[in-house]
Amino acid sequence: MTYPTIYSRKLGRFKIRGEMIRGHPEQVIEAFTLLKMLPVDVKFSYDTDSFDYLAMSERFETVPQGYMANEYILEMTADSTGHIELVEVRKL
């Protein structure tokens, strides 16, 4: 089976605050859509009230087999109606 280029081990790890998921889930979905992102693993961290994601996206670097994915920060900008206009991805 062959996969599209986006799925060729372009993996990244990042966190989203619990308050963002609970208060604005539509913005999170919109950001994932803009980034053509596919979450493959999600864990909730009670001590930081955040969701820890492992996802595939063309915006992440390719990770060799057996290596840990890099950690990234997602920075979102919304317009006055709350729609996501821009999502920046920055490697830590």
SSE order, one letter for each helix or strand = EHHEEEE
CA radius of gyration is 14 Å
Secondary structure tally, helices:
2
The number of strands is 5
Distance between the termini: 33 Å
Poorly predicted regions are none
Describe the main β-sheet briefly: 5 strands, mixed
Q: Could you give the order of strands across the largest sheet?
A: 2-3-1-4-5
Helix content: 10-25%
Give a quick rundown of the structure.
The chain is α+β, with helices and mostly antiparallel strands and 92 residues long. The protein has helices spanning 18-23, 25-34, and strands at 11-17, 38-45, 50-56, 70-78, 84-91. The longest helix has 10 residues, at 25-34.
Describe the overall structure:
There is one protein chain. The protein is of the alpha+beta class and 92 residues long. The protein has one domain (5-91). Helix content is 17%, strand content 42%. The protein has two helices and five strands. The longest helix is centred in the N-terminal third of the chain and has 10 residues, at 25-34.
Key traits:
single chain; 92 residues; alpha+beta; 5-stranded mixed beta sheet; 2 helices; 5 strands
Blueprint (SSEs and pairs):
Blueprint: E1 11-17, H1 18-23, H2 25-34, E2 38-45, E3 50-56, E4 70-78, E5 84-91
